[in-house]
């Protein structure tokens, strides 16, 4: 979490830079380049955490290490589901497909983050107005120097510390129950499509969703149970899985088409949340 206002707003850009990383990497592989060359030639990424990941991958692949080994060596550098999708693609020889899945996921996340960032302009404006207006209310009939000093102190305090409030508010808006279900559906679709075992895909998608109800629902389930039980059966009775999503899980179980079924549900949910 960033303390500054500008830092908290910039943090909402991370998904865009991750989408750019995976898009450029995928384009490079499609052009016949190795991962090392593709990652190196895309140039520096103007976001610290994403650039750190890119540089680490450039150095590691340049030393002849596999993407799987690099992910295992620095598990905290990437989101758990992100590392799992890369590992699955690397081990199965479908890395480019995994990169495309991650590109699409983060591109969708950025669209949602962009709307939230635009919404954050209102509390930022309110904070700036309050920094200028409060001294005139609290310090009634004080000397001009006192007003100016109070305005400067409040303005600096807001710009340096107001990011905490902005970050909390943005997190609340990004993680509504509806959006957490949409993220669950998208990550579940991506991880299954990448070839991850069903049990692993379920745990990663639930973790990525940030939905407490889903986390509580599966935390006592064994890996074997998650891997061998139909999705609809696993989430039956979960309060955070509405009837519409449960029916989509039933369809996915019956047809095996997790991609189109779950992504269509997520897209419809996101459109209704606009």
Structural features, described:
The chain is mainly alpha-helical and 274 residues long. The protein is built from 16 helices and no strands. Helix 2 packs across helix 3, helix 2 packs antiparallel against helix 7 and helix 7 runs antiparallel to helix 10. The longest helix is centred in the middle third of the chain and has 44 residues. The protein starts with a helix and ends with a helix.
Number of DSSP-assigned strands: 0
What are the segments in which pLDDT stays under 50 over at least 5 consecutive residues? none
Strand content: under 5%
Q: Please estimate the helix content.
A: over 70%
Whole-number radius of gyration?
A: 22 Å
Structural class: mainly alpha
Figure out the total of helices. 16
Brief summary:
With 274 residues, the protein is mostly helical.
State the main characteristics.
274 residues, 78% helix, globular, mainly alpha
Q: Strands, helices and their partners?
A:
Elements: H1 5-11, H2 14-30, H3 35-41, H4 48-62, H5 67-73, H6 80-92, H7 95-138, H8 144-161, H9 163-174, H10 177-193, H11 198-209, H12 212-218, H13 223-228, H14 231-234, H15 243-255, H16 258-272
Helix pairs in contact: 1-9, 2-3, 2-7, 3-4, 5-6, 6-7, 7-8, 7-9, 7-10, 10-11, 10-16, 15-16
